[in-house]
Amino acid sequence: PAYLDWVGSMIFHNLCSVIIAMNLILMGLELGCSACPNHDFYKELDICFLAFYVSELSLHLLYHQSSFLIGPLARVWWNWLDLAIVASGLVEQFIIPLLGGGIQFNASSLRALRLLRVFRIARAAKALKHTWNSNLSWAEGHAFEMFMMGVISGIIHCSTMLDYPVPAWAWLENIFLALYSFELFVRLHSNGLRYFYGQDWAWNNLDFVIVALGMLEQWMVTTQLSCSGSCASRVPLSEFQLYLSALGRLLRNIKPLHRLLTFMLLYAASIVFTTLVGKGFIYEDYDAPESAKILYGSVFRTFLSLFKLMNDDQSMVEPIIGTVGGQLLFYGFMCMSNWMML
């Protein structure tokens, strides 16, 4: 119908993309705060998002009619996924609570509930679909490239995250990782599979691996551990991953920085040693001895300790050489430092 032409417009398409992105952020906050007092508020917001999805799906069904679900598989399978996501959301929000008080859940019922959770997470695929079909030419211009260079340069301060831990850093890490992920998505959208084997293939593959590992560690493993209450045993290397990605991008785009490679790699090693040694992660009880805290308690002190180690001061390894993790760190750093001096 002509009066529904606005449903196919780019404005409505972009509005849907923004709301889906907001819903994904809400889901992440809800998973990380399953026991907090605002949990009921998150549920109410989720119902509002579900109402929007039902409205969006209904409008598309009215606008496209039978062609919305019938046609070439490459075109309609996204629409069937939308239908499954909305249906699973309705079952999870309304049907299960109505039946939950009077039925006993068996193994098959629990598997069905897990399937509903999978469809809920599949909203991320819905967001990818909207973004993939959007006009991303603005993200390939010089202005966006300069913005990303500013973001990448800013992550060099990540030693502050280790030396002065505050809750705000977790938000900043997620913002940086989200920007890196979006930039990677734009490059994949623009270049396709050539991204992995074309020009700068080595840097591109390094970017892909680092960002993928960061997403796994920050958005999947961390969330799962926070829900199970076992965050204390997590090794927080996201700062190092962000720094390594920033270092690679800066070296690729600013050639004179190659002369500072030794300093930058020593700085990267300082972040790793501070995280694993100064925070006690290489020790069985996760409690670093006082001698280790003195030498590796902050990135600045670690930088000085590693610089002394490069100049053959073997006393710098006494607090770590008694552990397997410390020995591996020592061997790895000596190999890297010898390579840096070549």
Automatic annotation (TrEMBL):
Localisation: Membrane
Domain of life: Eukaryota
Keywords, alphabetical: Membrane, Transmembrane, Transmembrane helix
Gene Ontology MF annotations: voltage-gated sodium channel activity
Ion transport domain sequence ranges: 10-133, 143-342
InterPro entries: Ion_trans_dom, VGCC_Ca_Na, Volt_channel_dom_sf
Any single Pfam family the record assigns to this protein: Ion_trans
Assigned GO CC terms: voltage-gated sodium channel complex
Annotated protein name in UniProt: Ion transport domain-containing protein
